[in-house]
Design a protein that fits this description.
Number of strands of chain B: 0
Family (chain A): Belongs to the binding-protein-dependent transport system permease family.
Largest sheet of chain B: none
Oligomer: heterodimer
CATH class of chain A: Mainly Alpha
Helix content of chain A: over 70%
Number of strands of chain A: 2
CATH architecture of the largest domain in chain B: Orthogonal Bundle
Strand order of the largest sheet of chain A: 1-2
Subcellular location (chain A): Cell membrane
Protein name (chain A): Carbohydrate ABC transporter permease
Keywords (chain A): Cell membrane, Membrane, Transmembrane, Transmembrane helix, Transport
Radius of gyration of chain A: 25 Å
Helix content of chain B: over 70%
Distance between the termini of chain A: 71 Å
Structural class of chain A: mainly alpha
Shape of chain A: flat
Main location (chain A): membrane
Largest interface: A-B, 101 and 101 residues
Chain lengths: ~300, ~300
């Protein structure tokens, strides 16, 4: 009798409390090193806190935000961020749709092609940027050499706002398009072939079928991808930092022509050690990202099934 | 048998008829192959070019027209990288970081994923929602307080500052939970319970063996992500104690204009993930297509 009692108690303990033991490590580590810093950023953003100041930290409420709104470097960085968001997100999704449509045909050696498109995504952002910075070099860069063959002449990619944004966008699009293409491909394979057969019998071309059948049916994935890509592309940091590496890398070019908001956050936080101001940038960037992602959602939501 | 032979040979459709038939059956034509090969070449070219430069003498990078075939100086350049910087330490650090993070993420995600999928406890759904919600938040936004904590702990500049925040991921827990939900029938666990199995034994003897395929995919992605991680290591580590990625950054920002050296280092740093990719490419592609990676 006592034995059964003991077993029952153990069983009850096991079903009631043991599950918490299994999920605790996650919540403990995430709580301390993930969630807490995230929330604490808001509190730091309300403080004057500069490591170089002897005076220590004190609360200034919204002074950092007021300073931010009047800071031309911040607006420049936000403008660059939005420009790069547009130049990366739109091509990424369009190219990914096209590549997915190609991969969705009955292709021999399909594993080879699928692995091929994902190769850029597994290379590190640091290596990618260093390689592309050389390809986009002014004097001996391969891109300029090719353009020269067509008589376009030498472009100083880093010098201009537009050219530097294009170069950085190429790196990002190169690295992420294949990944999105595979996500689209997975959904394309779920579309019933009979839809295409019927459309072909009705005389619809491949192009028409793509825009009238494939794209509308992929609407949920396009929305999802737009949001995922937006959260990534709004916080580009490694690309602008390593595009022009050197002592002043954090400024993103001599005229800050390609300094993103994330890079400005880094500059303020880790070259000026102004933690309060840097945290305010983080908070504003987070809000801006939510707004832009919402915008992306509203646009992609309008894709319609006929 | 003869009937088959007697049948007239099928007329091969040509021109527009052929195209229409291909369209209906979704069979790739020559243009599709041409386009796919172009995409493949574009994907591989930058990495290939980096390898080419790594195998040439330093002046090759500036030559016009550009050099596009590998040369014989790869090992000389690799030796120069190891002479110029402590790249061995960077590689060692990256192996330790990515290795520890991978083992830890896979283990804790499997444990928590099992509990969320197969055990009933109060507050389960709320906690799961919390995990799903936090997946969407870029944790980099908390980088300033995280750095302050690490300085406080005296960890700044050391690799545990990179390892510890990476020990668990919301994505990992969610991914394993989704897998367990489908992979283990409840009846199996009930039977185990009837036999007096403690839930930890069920986890060890039933769940863990069943989780192997998903755990492997999670492990692959976690390793590659940890190996390639840039921003946080850049912030918290010092140039004297780098990972591969921060060593690359230091090398590129240094006072050397020897970009052959920098690209050789980039090539060396890419080899481990490239090896994982070539060995397990099929699983990686399958993982992404089943939604295994967050952006």
């Amino acid at each position: 009798m006592a034995l059964i009692d003991k077993a029952a108690r153990r069983h009850r303990w096991d079903t009631k409390f043991a599950p918490y033991g299994y999920v605790t490590p996650y919540f403990l580590i995430f709580g301390v090193f993930g969630l807490f810093p995230l929330l604490y950023t808001i509190w730091v953003s309300l403080q004057h806190r500069n490591l170089l100041d002897e005076g220590g930290a004190y609360v200034v409420w919204f002074a950092n935000y007021a300073k931010l709104l009047a800071d031309p470097y911040f607006w420049n960085a936000m403008g660059n961020t939005l420009s790069l968001w547009l130049l990366t997100t739109v091509p990424q999704i369009l190219f990914a749709l096209g590549i997915a449509a190609l991969l969705n045909r009955k292709v021999r050696t399909r594993t080879l092609f699928r692995m091929g498109v994902i190769l850029p995504n597994i290379t590190s952002v640091a290596a990618v940027t260093i390689i592309f910075a050389q390809l986009f070099g002014r004097d001996f860069g391969l891109v300029n050499w090719v353009l020269d063959l067509f008589g376009a002449g030498q472009i100083d990619w880093q010098a201009g706002t537009a050219t530097s944004h294009i170069a950085i966008a190429v790196m990002v699009v190169w690295r992420w398009t294949g990944y999105h293409a595979l996500i689209f491909l997975a959904s394309m394979q779920a579309i019933s072939p009979s839809l295409y057969e019927a459309a072909t019998l009705d005389g619809a071309s491949g192009w028409q079928q793509f825009w009238r059948i494939t794209v509308p049916l992929l609407r949920p994935q396009i929305i999802f991808t737009t949001i995922i890509a937006t959260t990534g592309n709004m916080r580009l940091l490694a690309e602008p930092l390593l595009f022009n590496p050197g002592a002043a890398a954090a400024t993103g070019g001599s005229d800050r022509q390609f300094q993103t908001a994330a890079l400005y956050l880094y500059e303020q936080g880790f070259t000026n050690y102004d933690f309060g101001y840097s945290s305010a940038i983080a908070v504003v960037l987070a809000i801006a990202t939510i707004i832009v992602a919402g915008l992306g959602y509203l646009v992609t939501k309008r894709i319609q099934t006929e | 048998m003869t009937a088959v032979l007697d049948r007239p040979a099928p007329v091969r459709p040509t021109g527009p008829a052929l195209r229409a038939r291909r369209l209906a059956r979704r069979v790739a034509g020559p243009w599709t192959y041409a386009a796919l090969i172009a995409v493949l070449a574009g994907s591989a070219f930058p990495v290939y070019w980096s390898f080419v430069v790594s195998s040439q003498t330093p002046d090759a990078i500036d030559s016009v027209p550009p050099v596009l075939v590998p040369g014989g100086h790869l090992f000389a350049n690799i030796a120069r990288v190891f002479d110029t910087t402590d790249f061995a330490l960077a590689l060692m650090n990256s192996i330790v970081v990515a290795g520890t993070v991978t083992v830890s993420v896979v283990f804790f995600s499997t444990l928590a994923g099992f509990a969320f999928a197969k055990l009933k406890f109060r507050g389960r759904n709320v906690l799961l929602l919390l995990i799903i919600g936090t997946q969407a938040i870029p944790t980099e936004l908390g980088i300033i307080p995280l750095y302050m904590m690490m300085s406080e702990f005296g960890w700044a500049g050391q690799i545990h500052a990179v390892i510890v925040p990476g020990l668990v991921t919301a994505f990992g827990v969610f991914f394993m939970r989704q897998y367990f939900e489908r992979a283990i029938p409840d009846e199996l666990l009930e039977a185990g319970r009837m036999d007096g199995c403690h839930s930890l034994r069920l986890f060890w003897h039933v769940a863990l063996p069943a989780a192997r395929p998903a755990a492997a995919v999670l492990g692959l992605f976690t390793f590659m992500q940890a190996w390639n991680d840039f921003f946080w290591p850049l912030v918290v580590l010092v140039p004297e104690n780098p990972t591969v990625q921060t060593a690359l950054s230091t090398l590129a920002s240094g006072y050397t204009t020897d970009y052959t050296l920098v690209l050789t280092a980039a090539t060396i740093g890419t080899v481990p993930v490239l090896a994982v990719f070539l060995l397990f490419g099929r699983q990686i592609v399958g993982g992404i297509m089943s939604g295994a990676v967050k952006g």
